[in-house]
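Re: the multi-chain job from yesterday

Posting the exact lines I submitted so nobody has to dig through the queue logs.
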Amino acid sequence: MKEFIPVLKRTKLFAGVGEDDITAMLSCLGARLRTFKKGDYVLRQGEHLGDILVLAEGKLHIQRDDYWGNRSILGHIGIGEIFGEAYVAPESGTLLNDVVALEDSAVFFFDVKRVITTCSSACRFHTMVVQNLFFAISEKNRSLIQKLDYMSRRTTREKLLSYLSEEAKKQNSPYITIPYNRQQLADYLSVDRSAMSNELCKMRDEGLLEFEKNRFKLL
Amino acid sequence: MKEFIPVLKRTKLFAGVGEDDITAMLSCLGARLRTFKKGDYVLRQGEHLGDILVLAEGKLHIQRDDYWGNRSILGHIGIGEIFGEAYVAPESGTLLNDVVALEDSAVFFFDVKRVITTCSSACRFHTMVVQNLFFAISEKNRSLIQKLDYMSRRTTREKLLSYLSEEAKKQNSPYITIPYNRQQLADYLSVDRSAMSNELCKMRDEGLLEFEKNRFKLL
DNA sequence: TCCTTTCCGTTGTAAATACAACCGAACTGT
DNA sequence: ACAGTTCGGTTGTATTTACAACGGAAAGGA
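And the result, structure tokens for all chains:
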């Protein structure tokens, strides 16, 4: 667990907290570290969750398969990102999605109750962690709204353009790299892969953008 | 402002706080009450927001019109509901959506900074309000994920079924009432109204459901 | 190197959707 | 009672998408 303290220090959850203080807080927050092999399920749809999670190592996808095997990808989790925060409320039901390891991964589990209940003097920075979590959830909220914006577009082209241009804004450059391959991007935007591939090539031919693998340039 | 204290008492934000304590907290939270006429914009896409809002009276829609006038409705806000919480983080950008009054409405504005910075002894229940807000955001988060689930369905029928069955679960009855008329429901699910209307009738003919205006029965 | 697998572009067809237009019923205000 | 408006169902057509299938390029392993 100790080895990942520097990683935790760089997360939004522990922003402003020193490594020593993080170490001291771990037990107070009920921290556990679990490792997963590539392909493992970190969380399963339908389970109940009483923890807030932080990815220490690896890559994860939040996804969901429906009855007919149709997969939809809700998002991508990189190192240091928080997830599971949608289920901190006591009455929140079971998980709506699966979380799957794309690579061998390590995940911190923090007990929700112990995170949000600021304890006494023992950990001085607990209040700051709560506020950090607050902002993190709020930001996740915003990014979900953003994704709903892509999804509300009627055509594949509009979905692609709104997603790519938002990424360009986020990465502050017309050259962008996305965390998805074609199939995954199609699953993320809930469209057919071949139709999307087709549309991408049309847009390239029309001079709207260029791409190679998962790197795009908007023109 | 006083007249709406009983309303506030029943909101999730002030759950567990008595009317007297709420009254005492109002100034501490930087509360302001603003009224809106039917059709007024409560918030506009692109603005910056430094408040958390609670609807005291009326009905609101969260919506967005794109360049071509295509409207998409992100959700419906009823009395006592919190909104604007997606923008509490200091670095969160501008509003992604409009919020529009469907009826004459009254809205409480609470200063974000003053809400999340627990003050001293003056207001005993401030900590509880922060935790309530925490749960509320987390729950909103969950409902956004839920909506993404509807939206990720490929066909109009699947979108309708996932939405309606989720509402049935939420309202705990096969008889459900929705806060949208046909056009609004279509905007909510991001589909064409006539196509949706068509699909609804087909589903009724197949015996999947019955409906009249905005009341539905799942079979 | 060879074999296997993954990735991605392409194509054709069937299915679903968007769009526009129309109509009747219900509701509104005068 | 009347005109004007909203609402919801219906229909036809053009457009878009889903699905299945194929093939070549690239990547990975033995």
